[in-house]
Amino acid sequence: DLFVEGHKVILLNEEELHFYISGVVRQTDVQPDNSIRSSVIADAQVEFSGRGVVTDQQSPGWLYRFMDKVKPI
After folding, report:
1. What is the pLDDT of residue 12?
2. How far apart are the first and last CA of the chain?
3. CB 30 within 8 A of CB 3
4. Which of 10, 35, 36, 60 could form a disulfide with 17 if both were Cys (CB 3.0 to 4.6 A apart)?
5. Contact 54, 31 (CB under 8 A)
6. Could you read off the pLDDT of 45-68 as tens digits, one per residue?
7. What CA–CA distance (Å, rounded) separates 62 from 47?
8. What are the φ and ψ backbone dihedral angles of 60, each rounded to 5 degrees?
9. Other residues' Cβ atoms within 10 Å of the Cβ of residue 22
């Protein structure tokens, strides 16, 4: 068995998007061009995150975070 991981960064409209995937594959599932179908990755872990204008607008403001700590809903 082989442990594989990959990372891809995409820049789109002042937003930096990160895609990360890792998992375990059998050596026989590796294609001659070193590609692997996502359906054969065991114990797959996928992470998608970003930085930029859109991501900053989606995070809660400082007042909301303060009120959440003082009196959680």
Report:
1. 82
2. 46
3. no
4. 10
5. no
6. 999 888 876 666 666 777 877 877
7. 26
8. -65, 150
9. 15
Round to whole Å and give the CA distance between 38 and 17.
20
Phi then psi for residue 39, to 5 deg, are -75, -10
pTM of the model: 0.62
Q: Both tokens of residue 70? A: 């003082």
Across the range 33-46, mean pLDDT stands at: 93
Name the nearest CA neighbour of 3 among 32, 26, 37. Answer: 26
Q: Is the pLDDT of residue 18 over 80?
A: yes
Instruction: Please tell me what DSSP assigns to residue 1.
Output: -
Q: Quick one: which of 1, 45, 54 has its CA closest to 23? A: 45
